[in-house]
Structures are given as C-alpha cells and as structure tokens.
C-alpha cells in the first residue's frame, strides 16, 4: 500500500474545502503521519487475561472477553459486525456524528472498518458500577496505523460511567475514532487514561448531546510520543451540557496536541472546559480550544480555564482558548496562564522542613489533583493518581 496518506483516501470522502492548513495543525507537522500506511492486520491467538465482572477486554482491536456482570440492557459487539447487520439501527449514527470529510484520518477510517467496538445502552439503564474497557496492544509497527473505532449509543433516561484504559506495550501507530450519541435525559461520564510513551496516535472524538443530557469527560494523557487529539462536541438541544476536564503530563521528546471544539446549537446549553498541561525536558504540549455559541442559542454558558506548568528551559507549551459568541444573552468566560513553579511557594514549604524535591512534587500533585479529583469513580481515580505519582517520582530532576 502506498506510503503517502493523501493517495490512500477515496476522493469522494473529502470536503471540497479540505486543507491541512487549519490553525489546529499549526504546531504539529502533518508529514509525521503522512508517511504511515494502513496495512495493520492483528494475529489471532488465545490470550489468558483476567476479566473482572464489569470489564471489557480488547486485544489488538478485537473483543476477547466480556465481564460477567455486564447485563442484558447493555449490548456490546465488534463494530464491523454491528455495522454490517445494522445492530440496533447503529447506521443511523455511524459516521454521522463526526465531521469525517474534514479530516484525512476520519475519512480513511470508515473505508477500512475492521477493528473496534459498538456499545448500546438501552432505555432506563442506571448502572451503579463503572464499565472499564481495557485495550491491550502488543502487535503492530510505528510505520503502520492500526485503524480502530468506537461507537457508543446511549438511549433515553440512562446513566453510565465508562473508563477507557489503554495498555500499549509496543512501539506502534494507531488511528482511533470515537462517536457518542447521547439521547434525551441521559448522563454519560467517560474517563480516558493513556500512557503512550512509544505511541504515535491520531485520535478523533465526537459527541451529540441531546435534551437534558450531560456528557462529562476526563481526558488524561500521561506521556505520548506523538499524539494529535481532536474533540468535537455538539450541544444539540435545550439544557444539554458538556464538562471536559483535561490533563497532559509530558517529558523527554513527547509531543501532545489537543484541539477542542464545543458548539452550542440551542438555548440553555452549558459547557465547562478545564485543561492543564505539564511539560518537562524537550516536550511540547498544545491546546487549541474553541467554544462557539450560535445566534439562536440564548441563555447559554460557556467557560474555559487553562493552566500550564513549564518545568524546563527547553519545554514548550502553546495555548489558545477562544470564544466565538453570536448571541448577547449568554454568560461566557475564558482564562489561560503558563509559567514555572512559584519560587515563593517552594521557599515557604522549605521553611516548614520539607526538602526542595518533595516540595515540588507536593505542588505538582496539588496542580494535578484539581483535575483527577473530578473523576467520579473512586477506584479509578485512586489508580490514576497512583500511576501519575509514580511517573512524577521517576522523571528527571525538576
């Protein structure tokens, strides 16, 4: 298969106005991805992996185990089979939520649909336990994309908490797409935690949020060789709501670029973005966030808060939160700050008998916990905090 990605995309998939010169590509070179191919084929083999009652185990892109407590009101299937059979009318949403024709990677994904999962939550489903999706990848190469897709359809009057836990064990590349349909009077909390110091990933996430529904997202990147994350949130109906908490911690030559677009399309919708970046060594972190309130969307709220820490002279952070407001009857705010640790705070802690290294770690944990503490699942929150703390303890001197 040719190495140039532009030659691999069917022309009818692309928008006539397509260009790679978008502002959200300003700090990430497209050519780093353009040389990759889509010829990843996982080897089928038996794997001995423990599966807890509320777990879904995915191995190199395919479902291998479902937890015993995942009940009949939740249906899970490999996505290629679901789309082929139009399971629970999934074609109504598949490839409709994400603006696929604006992006080479979203254009290619449905044309080569083999790996991924479909999750359907039936009406009036209230889960008190979180579902954990554990994706283990130990095959592939850095020159070939794994093409993976997740479609989640939440029906009316349902509440679900889903935790994505990626365990990537080899140097490879992955092209991932998430589409979420959240119907009326429902609530979905998604926690996405990844540690990908060997991984190149293009990730595109999109969600439609309907009337009286809430999407809460906790997106945590703990390292990443080269990650480009795009989030498209569409607040469709009245009283729709999105809470997006993001944390990016990087060192060495890591490069993580996140683009977030939240569009208010109806009255009384609300969005709240809180995103933090910590960059060390020669790493580079980027946040380009845009909240758009359309003309017909009165009585809306859109808030953006971004705080960043640079821990070395060579680290770089580029932050650009924006508001586009086309209606006067709204409440909006945005703020962004980037800097080093406050020397006064370190000095104060040292006067209390705390050595300098421990003082810096305590300050970092305080900075980080303001995001991780928003995770509702206590077990998952504690596990993530433990992994972050171990990571901080083992990076180079601050």
How many separate domains make up the residues? 1
Task: Give the end-to-end Cα distance, rounded to a whole number of Å.
Answer: 45 Å
**Helix coverage percent:** 10-25%
Tell me, briefly, the overall form: globular
Structural class: alpha/beta
Uncertain runs with pLDDT below 50, 5 residues or more?
A: 11-18
| Alpha plus pi helix count | 6
- Tally of DSSP β-strands: 17
Kindly state the mean pLDDT as a whole number? 87
Order of helices and strands: HEEEHHEEEEEEEEEEEEEEHHH
Task: Round the Cα radius of gyration to an integer and report it.
Answer: 21 Å
**What proportion of the residues form beta strands (DSSP E)?**
35-45%
Quaternary state of the chains: single chain
Main beta sheet, described?
A: 17 strands, mixed
Note down, in words, how this protein is organized.
The chain has helices at residues 31-34, 79-85, 104-111, 343-351, 356-372, 378-394; strands at 55-59, 62-66, 74-78, 115-121, 131-137, 145-154, 159-168, 172-182, 187-209, 214-235, 241-250, 255-264, 270-279, 284-293, 300-310, 316-325, 330-339. The relative contact order is 0.10. The protein has one domain (5-342). It is globular, with a radius of gyration of 21 Å. The protein contains six helices and 17 strands. α4 crosses α5 and α5 runs antiparallel to α6. It has a 17-stranded mixed beta sheet that branches. 16% of the residues lie in helices and 44% in strands. It is an alpha/beta fold and 398 residues long.
């Amino acid at each position: 298969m040719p190495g140039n990605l532009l030659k691999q995309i069917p022309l009818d998939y692309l928008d006539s106005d397509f260009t790679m010169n978008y502002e959200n590509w300003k700090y990430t070179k497209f050519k780093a991805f353009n040389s990759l191919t889509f010829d990843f084929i996982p080897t089928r083999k038996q794997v001995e992996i423990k599966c807890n009652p509320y777990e879904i185990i995915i191995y190199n892109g395919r479902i291998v185990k479902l937890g015993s407590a995942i009940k009949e009101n939740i249906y899970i299937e490999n996505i290629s089979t679901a789309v082929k059979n139009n399971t629970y009318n999934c074609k109504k949403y598949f490839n409709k939520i994400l603006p696929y024709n604006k992006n080479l990677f979203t254009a290619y994904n449905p044309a080569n649909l083999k790996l991924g999962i479909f999750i359907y939550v039936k009406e009036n489903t209230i889960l008190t336990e979180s579902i954990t999706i554990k994706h283990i990848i130990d095959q592939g190469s850095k020159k070939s994309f794994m093409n993976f897709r997740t479609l989640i359809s939440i029906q009316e009057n349902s509440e679900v908490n889903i935790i994505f836990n990626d365990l990537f064990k080899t140097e490879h590349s992955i092209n991932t797409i998430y589409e979420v349909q959240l119907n009326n009077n429902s609530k979905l909390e998604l926690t996405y935690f990844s540690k990908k110091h060997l991984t190149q990933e293009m990730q595109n996430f999109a969600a439609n949020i309907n009337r009286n529904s809430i999407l809460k997202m906790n997106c945590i990147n703990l390292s990443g060789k080269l990650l480009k994350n795009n989030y498209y949130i569409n607040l469709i109906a009245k009283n729709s709501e999105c809470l997006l908490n993001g944390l990016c911690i990087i060192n060495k030559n890591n490069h993580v670029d996140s683009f977030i677009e939240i569009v208010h399309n109806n009255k009384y919708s609300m969005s709240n973005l809180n995103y933090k970046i910590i960059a060390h060594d020669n790493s580079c972190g980027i946040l380009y966030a845009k909240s758009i309130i359309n003309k017909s969307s009165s009585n809306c709220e859109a808030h953006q808060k971004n705080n960043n820490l640079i821990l070395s002279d060579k680290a770089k952070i580029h932050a650009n939160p924006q508001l586009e407001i086309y209606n006067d009857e709204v409440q909006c705010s945005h703020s962004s700050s980037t800097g080093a640790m406050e020397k006064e705070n370190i000095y104060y802690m040292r006067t209390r008998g705390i050595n300098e290294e421990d003082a810096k770690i305590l300050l970092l944990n305080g900075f980080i916990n303001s995001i991780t503490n928003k995770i509702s699942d206590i077990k998952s929150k504690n596990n993530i905090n433990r992994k972050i703390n171990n990571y901080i303890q083992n990076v180079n001197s601050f």
